[in-house]
Amino acid sequence: xxxxxxxxxxxxxxxxxxxxxxxxxxxxxxxxxxxxxxxxxxxxxxxxxxxxxxxxxxxxxxxxxxxxxxxxxxxxxxxxxxxxxxxxxxxxxxxxxxxxxxxxxxxxxxxxxxxxxxxxxxxxxxxxxxxxxxxxxxxxxxxxxxxxxxxxxxxxxxxxxxxxxxxxxxxxxxxxxxxxxxxxxxxxxxxxxxxxxxxxxxxxxxxxxxxxxxxxxxxxxxxxxxxxxxxxxxxxxxxxxxxxxxxxxxxxxxxxxxxxxxxxxxxxxxxxxxxxxxxxxxxxxxxxxxxxxxxxxxxxxxxxxxxxxxxxxxxxxxxxxxxxxxxxxxxxxxxxxxxxxxxxxxxxxxxxxxxxxxxxxxxxxxxxxxxxxxxxxxxxxxxxxxxxxxxxxxxxxxxxxxxxxxxxxxxxxxxxxxxxxxxxxxxxxxxxxxxxxxxxxxxxxxxxxxxxxxxxxxxxxxxxxxxxxxxxxxxxxxxxxxxxxxxxxxxxxxxxxxxxxxxxxxxxxxxxxxxxxxxxxxxxxxxxxxxxxxxxxxxxxxxxxxxxxxxxxxxxxxxxxxxxxxxxxxxx
Amino acid sequence: xxxxxxxxxxxxxxxxxxxxxxxxxxxxxxxxxxxxxxxxxxxxxxxxxxxxxxxxxxxxxxxxxxxxxxxxxxxxxxxxxxxxxxxxxxxxxxxxxxxxxxxxxxxxxxxxxxx
Lengths: 572, 115
Prior knowledge:
Chain A is mainly α and 572 residues long. Chain A contains 22 helices and two strands.
């Protein structure tokens, strides 16, 4: 009963958000609480301002919550109502965050879903791991929230406004000065922590990998994405006026994006624990999405949003698949599981399909998002970004394909596997995956494919992003005033060239996976030269990532100082 | 100079709190330091809305145009206090769980692999 009620609630939320998405296509849907409408263009009350981008992220959260709750239908007998209640509060916070048109309300919803997330990450108290992960998650993210609030306080002191549109209007009259830049720094770093941009990402792997799988679905699918959404939303509505003339801002954001994408991709390949692998895949794909936003134009933003939604669906499906593996084999370590998944062909198929989704192969929606971002990168004169997209897609899909090959086909050197093998070999408790477990993953993957096949989706995404990035039009829609002119029609994005890049990513990913599984087939000269060169770097990267709570906050402070120094350089 | 004092205090509290979290070897200590850092935002918000010589923002029986401190920052601070209390309570509950499992509050002596 509790299961059915929770699933039904989440499904209704998803449908409502989808309806909002449809009705906001012709113009932002603005709702003033208590009918405190603006007087003479001054916002008095608190508003929800819904546009297609916000509604799309909220819909993603609703869909993932529905899938996750369906998956957990029979799993949480003991703590069921507590778990379902927390999941729904978590979802409510996310939806409010996406729809809010008020900066302080964004902070409150941010804290609401964060607190629910800390509890969800740590409530499985039979095991010491989750508690440690949750503590690191909660402390680092709370520091991020404090920075966000400090930024809001500075902006309120300058403008006397909290409404996003009003803030943007007040700030646009002057070029950015020190106070505005510091407020920008505080807000961006606060949201970067949630998005897990390197070096603010050290809390993520423990929190995502040690949390129950059901929770991981929402964490990996939507939480990091919310940080990125907030970065883009706040930049475009509030700071795009005063920071419009800052030439180096794009370069600063791209540095963060590239570092995140590469560090996440390499760490993903180095993992043997499936959930941890997906956690680092999330980090690397956050880097890719941030690269799209960092181009600071409508095309890049549209591509990033499309990619974010499709990627969220794929990662949700992958986390559910890992949950199925965990449920049946009582383990998620690739090496210990080598060859033990032969009786689960459907789960293997799900993981392979998910790996292709991560690689951004058509017909997955991730392909369209990436194609748009690549087009935007070419327009912005940054063609090298395509190489980054191909590399990262290859790395993350290679890690998953390698693990799938090892677990389900028994490929790979037996020596490595035997060394890690645990005592409970035979524990195969549930011979077949239950339909309520497989169906949500299939549905999420089907959703990602449907996005990729939807006719005219790239044009719609570009149009939505055009409105998302148009500060005066947003202000007019929220505060009243001159109506925005109709956005220009967008030519269809050519897909032939991006399809070749996507194919290259997938082939590279497969080749890397095979190389990892059959190192004896590599030319001996290459192997002997490569290993000593790479090993120290890999060891250093691993050492840096074995963090305590204090280290993760230290990195936060160091990252903020670095980002601040770069901002000071470019806004001088 | 006195005008900037609250901002300096806010910055000091934030840095002191962060320093405490970074160097902490005890979870309860770390969580308290987080509260210290959080209280910097109370000071910052209140000083942003402060009006020298202003009264409390209760507009009853006072002439129109009386100077008053900004009531909005008071509301924001109150919300912030509630949020801070929630986070601290949850974190302390997690710390109790961590102590039950590990027999220590020092995060560096917790069991389980770090990778």
